[in-house]
Design brief:
The protein is of the alpha/beta class. It has 2 domains: 383 residues, ANL, N-terminal domain (Rossmann fold), CATH 3.40.50; 127 residues, GMP Synthetase, Chain A, domain 3, CATH 3.30.300. The strands form 8 sheets. The protein has an 8-stranded mixed β-sheet with strand order 12-11-8-6-7-14-15-23, with helices on both faces. The chain has a 7-stranded mixed β-sheet with strand order 5-4-17-16-18-19-20, sandwiched between helices. Strand 4 and strand 5 form a beta hairpin. It is globular. The chain binds 5'-O-[(S)-butoxy(hydroxy)phosphoryl]adenosine. The site of 5'-O-[(S)-butoxy(hydroxy)phosphoryl]adenosine (WT7) has 22 residues, from helix 12, strand 20, strand 24 and strand 25.
Length: 657
């Protein structure tokens, strides 16, 4: 395998990296994507999407492709009816592929399980019957708080099958975060496990559910999968999965639901403290996840082994582990654990074991692999890999090249896919086999998608210019709103460029001289830590809810591995933090944030300060705090109410660095 050049040299070269990588003739000849797709979509966008929708089985065909008359609330494939789970499972069994492995599941402690489509059909049917026996049906909300075990996927598909909305909450979130997400959407059922494996040791999970449910009166039952055999407290709401689900009939007749029937809610961070429940519906969502998965990853269902390393707690897991791949009859790997358990070659060992051919991960993990060293992937046979994907944050050219050389054997095309929880599916990405890839750029909107870079006034910028990324055409998998908050939906996404009718993504972007799009990170108060979205306000609220904190300001500071790291500036109440360097107070605060939100939101660094920089109208100037957090000279302070504040901060910094 080709090795990348020495680190220092690589850095110098890559600051000016401008190579492009044209597809090989061999890859292009077999690619699912064709160059004509761009033209076809441009000629008639709606006809193009209608054609993509035919990838699915519709019980009743739609009579209108798009109804945008009530913008920004879209309706796609109006009048159509389908069952999403049937499309992901049963139809593959009916077409004679029941014996094909759908999921090669790999547990963290080394246990594994191969699940065929026929088996998946039985498991999902049993789970759907179990939901029905608990009175769960169309439009009910079900929270799923589980590690990456097969039952999590069965549970999602069972919800889809009976028309209930799942609300998956990442297993790393705290009881409090779980409670607010259950309560906001009034979930009637929670599906969870006794515990989960974390870096080789079982950790309890159910106690967090017990705590959340105690404060969430809508919950009637809690369905518990036994995973770690951890002893758990039992309440009268609790039901064991193995008792209820395993005793159900393994056949279930799916009902066809309206194309706009809600499929799921997924909470994501916004610029305020309260997470937004992003709502997705059925027909359009499944059409676009299926279409993008087929074309962007070039999936060949008979020969490929696909692996997306995301967790189902995030939208990537929803769209590119569950719905897109399964609707395309994938054979995929699902891995429960962390990449360095029990050793730093775990991912490559799995690639070798299953002959993974398509691998989709996040830049933060690629940079972590770089840190661990190229000698680790070099020990394994990775020659099966033929397409590599990246998602979650901008990928720096150096990591891109490292990925190509050390994982992709110097030849696998890399697809840098830009999208969001709100967009539901990939929006901007090169098409492998069609587009020459370019390290660091997500390049161009997919056929059927309208995206551009505009200035403050909403006018498209010239090639070479920068501004904001907007989406200027409705798309099938777009969010249909924020659960219970129509106003917030309009305000957040549609008011910034309301006149032009553009969806404002919240990302800065630029065009290069070829007109390719480069994403530049969020322009709002949302941080991106290891590809996870965390709002500054959410962390600030958690900090000020601690009795020792008088005021707090949080910024995302650039971080070589995680993209951004959370840096907090706090003013402590009189007396608190007087111990040596305030170390104890700081530790207590980090733990408190983990308890309020989850360990992923723990600040990398907390600085105790006497004052915070504010404008005359009382707004915290995060820009100046970011200068401090990133060890830069502090910028222009003339708009501060008290310009000496920054000197005070710099002089008296106590930090836990
Ligand atoms: C935000 C959305 C989409 C699944 C994972 C994150 C950033 C995402 C890229 C990329 C540059 C990216 C954006 C976006 N982002 N992919 N390929 N290049 N930035 O979903 O939590 O909804 O976050 O992630 O800032 O707005 P999410």
């Amino acid at each position: 395998m080709t090795q990348s050049p020495g680190q220092g040299q690589a850095l110098d070269n890559l600051l000016t990296e401008s190579r492009t990588f044209p597809p090989s003739a061999e890859f292009a000849a077999q690619a699912n994507a064709r160059p004509e797709l761009y033209e076809e979509a441009k000629a008639d966008r709606e006809a193009f999407w209608a054609k993509q929708a035919e990838r699915l089985h519709w019980e009743t065909k739609w009579d209108q492709v798009l109804d945008w008359s009530n913008a920004p609330f879209a309706k796609w494939f109006v009048g159509g009816k389908l069952n999403v789970a049937y499309n992901c499972v049963d139809r593959h069994v009916e077409s004679g592929h029941g014996d094909q492995v759908a999921i090669h599941w790999e547990g963290e402690p080394g246990d594994s399980r191969a699940i065929t489509y026929a088996e998946l059909q039985r498991e999902v049917s049993k789970a759907a019957n179990a939901l029905a026996s608990l009175g769960i049906g169309a439009e009910d909300r079900v929270a799923i708080y589980m590690p990456m075990i097969p039952e999590a996927i069965f549970a999602m598909l069972a919800c889809a099958r009976v028309g209930a909305l799942h609300n998956v909450v990442f297993g790393g979130f705290s009881a409090e975060a779980l409670r607010t997400r259950i309560q906001d959407s009034a979930c009637r059922l929670v599906i969870t496990t006794d515990g989960q494996y974390r870096r080789g040791t079982p950790a309890p999970l159910k106690p967090a559910v017990d705590e959340a449910v105690a404060g969430a009166p809508s919950v009637e039952k809690v369905l518990v999968v036994k995973r770690t055999d951890t002893e758990v407290a039992w309440t009268d709401k609790d039901v064991w999965w193995h008792e209820l689900v395993d005793s159900q009939p393994d056949q279930h007749t799916p009902e066809a639901f309206d194309s706009e029937h809600p499929l799921f809610i997924l909470y994501t961070s916004g610029t305020t403290g309260k997470p937004k429940g992003i709502l997705h519906t059925s027909g359009g969502y499944l059409t676009q996840t299926s279409y993008t998965h087929h074309n962007v990853f070039d999936l060949k269902p008979d020969t490929d082994v696909y692996w997306c390393t995301a967790d189902i707690g995030w939208v990537t897991g929803h769209s590119y582990i569950v719905y897109g791949p399964l609707s395309n009859r994938v054979t995929q790997v699902v891995y429960e654990g962390t990449p360095n358990t029990p050793h730093e070659g775990r991912h490559w060992e799995i690639v070798q074991k299953y002959g993974v051919s398509i691998y989709y991960t996040a830049p933060t993990l690629i940079r972590t692999f770089m840190k661990w060293g190229a000698d680790i992937p070099a020990k394994y046979d990775l020659s099966s890999l033929r397409v590599l994907g990246s998602v979650g944050e901008p990928i720096n050219p150096e990591a891109w090249i490292w990925y190509r050389e050390n994982v992709g054997g110097g030849k696998a095309p890399i697809v840098d896919t830009w999208w969001q929880t709100e967009t539901g599916a990939i929006m901007i990405s090169p098409l492998p086999g069609v587009v020459s890839t370019k390290p660091g750029s997500a390049q161009r909107p997919l056929p059927g998608i309208g995206a551009k870079v505009v200035n403050d006034e909403g006018v498209e910028v010239e090639h070479g210019g920068g501004g904001y990324l907007v989406l200027d055409e409705p798309w099938p998998s777009m969010l249909r709103g924020i659960w219970g908050d129509e106003e917030r939906y309009r305000d957040t996404y549609w008011s910034r460029f309301g006149e032009q009718g553009f969806y404002f993504a919240g990302d800065g972007a630029k065009y290069d001289d070829d007109g390719d799009i480069w994403l530049l990170g969020r322009v709002d108060d949302v941080m991106n830590v290891s590809g996870h979205r965390i709002s500054t306000t959410e962390v600030e609220s958690a900090l000020v809810s601690h009795p020792t904190v008088a005021e707090a300001a949080v910024v995302g500071a650039s971080d070589a591995t995680t993209g951004q790291g959370i840096v907090a500036f706090v003013i402590l109440r009189g007396g608190a933090g007087d111990d040596a360097g305030g170390a104890e107070a700081i530790k207590a605060l980090r733990d408190h944030v983990a308890k309020e939100i989850g360990p992923i939101a723990k600040p990398r660094q907390i600085m105790v300060v006497p004052e915070l920089p504010k404008t005359r109208s009382g707004k915290i100037m995060r820009r100046l705090l970011r200068d401090v957090a990133e060890n830069r000279a502090v910028g222009d302070v003339t708009t501060l109410a008290d310009s000496s504040v920054m000197d005070l901060i710099s002089a008296g910094l106590q930090s836990d660095k």
